Predict the 3D structure of the following.
Amino acid sequence: MIISLQAVYSPHSHFPLSETSLTLLESSLLYTNPIPSCGTLSSAPNNNPTILSPFTSLCVDLVSCLVHTHVLKFGLDLDCHVANGLVRGYSVSGDLVDARHVFDEIPMKSLSLWTTMICGYAQNFCHNEALNLFEGMIVGGFEPNGATLASVLSACARSGCLELGERIHEFMRVKGVEVGVILGTALVYMYAKNGSILMAGKLFDEMSERNVVTWNAMICGLASHGHVEDALSLFESMKKDGTVVPNDVTFIGVLSACCHAGLIGVGHKVFCSMKDVHGIEPKIEHYGCMVDLLGRGGKLLEAEEMIKRMPWKPDVVILGSLLAASKNNGNTEVAERVVKEILTLEPHNHGAHVALSNMYAEAGQWQEVLRLRKTMKEEKVKKAPGWSLVAT
């Protein structure tokens, strides 16, 4: 009997927890042997929920594989809408190999399918793949839409492709593409991330509507490129503007700015205001910024105490920041304690051993250097092979 599964699954697709949908999917496909329509198995053009809709939000690769199996069984594997849903499902769960396999199997690709695959790469930080696919789409005669352009601009930002980003911006000007908050933010982010602060600021000022991501892109861009006063000033403007409220990413940018300038007092005030004023619980990244700030200011014991007060165990990144500060300040006592904690997490961490050995050597403690090197030899600690990347 030919039945429509879409009516059964759609009500459950609106809810974040879709165990009911999963049970219905398994029992229906495996036991009742229905023949689903393309709309049921696809990412529907009218954005109505489908079988794949609830499961992509769960990031469960197994569900995409299950649906894919039955897509092949019912001969729907060459339908572009069905392929679009599968690519989206695989991409959200991080399975880009299967996503690309589905994409490559479709002979007549739609703009939507190209966009979904490019977005999948961009959202999973495969920036070069996203940019290469974008070029292939242009060669194929497709004109990118807003979603495609936003994803590619994001990839340009993260991969340092300023020139390509500028070409895309010019393409938008020539084609008269409407720049709303999403595309405007993508442009600000791309220019700010690549160090073109003046252009980023110009575009930011021209935007009639901004969301928190827009403000964060500008603040973080200013902070990462050493424009500390401008970053802090923009943060104050954001609070006075009142249309959006700062989030955890905002405070990472502000604390990073304080690190660049060594503004311990300002940084401490900002850190405390997160919970006291804005009701935002600091995350490990915020504690990391404070440890870095205190360490750069030579306040190693305070940095060490802050690590102890964290609600989580420190990771190697935070401990490495304190170790670097200990080295810069020649404090072997703190360094010894930090290295001990690092080795608890990563017993064969070559860098921690070497950093402490170099500190002993600089302090003229040659017996400690010999002891540490003997320990490294006995524990067979080896240097991890290095690698480099040359952009072409």
User: Anything to note?
Assistant: The two ends are 57 Å apart (CA to CA).
